[in-house]
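[job 4471] stage=fold_predict status=RUNNING
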Amino acid sequence: MAKILFLAHRVPFPPNKGDKIRAFHVLEHLAARHDVWLGAGADDLADLRSLPMAKARYRDACFAPLDRFRRARNMAWAAIAGAPLSVARFRHPMLERWIENVLREVRPDVVFVYSSAMAQYVVGRMRPGARLVVDFVDADAEKWRAYAERAPAPARWIYAAEARRLIRFEQRALDAAVAGILVSETERRLLANLQPQGADKLHVITNGVAADCFEVIPNPNVQPAIVFCGRMDYEPNIDGAEWFVREVLPKVRERRPDAVFRIVGAAPAARVLALRATPGVEVTGTVPDVRPYLAGAAVVVAPLRIARGIQNKVLEGLAAGRPVVATPDALDGIAARPGRDVLVGADAQGFAMAVTDVLLGVAPADLGSRGRRFVQRHHRWDAQLEAMDRLIADVVKPLSGQAAA
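[job 4471] inference complete, writing structure tokens
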């Protein structure tokens, strides 16, 4: 059993969005096998309510409130200093002091950083013998470069500068680490190309789906609902929703006029809310559980033109036994078979045709059940995290040898 300091950029509770879901399952898996101290940022201040539970569940915990004013101030200073804005937004002196105390008093065997932004707290401050493991999840610098390609000026210049700053920051994090983790082979290759000096440290541990998502969900088939799930203040989801409403939905409604596009997810941006003016579009905002919406879906869509890592929205749609239509980018790292486990639309015409085929009963009748069987075989969390056990064992093994000596 190792002593692990686990740092996450967001409180992993509740596990209701992509980065929280992965952090939660990795954290719980490690805590079942090791002693864990948890430090996290709380950019949603409601997450601070989870602190007493975390203190009881783990050896200790510290959640730092990252309100909007603090985040803005942090990013303003970062802009002046030429540092990555997306790293600075997760800085808090209270968390810094708590981490320093854990490093000094507990002397953890492993510091597990979830999201490279949290490496800012420990790079250059590690105690002798401690090992740093960074779950990069995605190649963030490449993500910002992709944003820059699509954005108009001046956002394009800001995004491009952020990509350059992140390349330098990720290099420092990877240089200090004994291992780095990515969510897919594509992300591993992207980061390896950007950081060739640390390519041999990089591992792939993909995402899973919680067992309770495999519960058979009855579909009432009351209306031809097209469901898109995700946090709706996230640029790739905003872009995907706009693209579907403007380019895909009109083609679908030509053949199925009663089709409804239901956008399900927290914090819808103004651009998403504006889509409600389009006939056939619904925006739910925050919901306590997405599963009832999946239950009411005739088809689940992932219309992402910008996608990084593994898309939980795809895995959850497949796990719920629903037909899923996705862009090629949204399927990166998911080896589902197009036409058998999932349908793929590379452009607006192809995407609309795939969705309409499902709504009109032209698509294979067993598409949903095939997709469900696929995730049961290939994306269960317990199976995915066996690789985490091996990685931590390899990291801790040299420390055991030093203690024996």
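[job 4471] summary: The chain is about 45% helix and 15% strand.
[job 4471] exit 0
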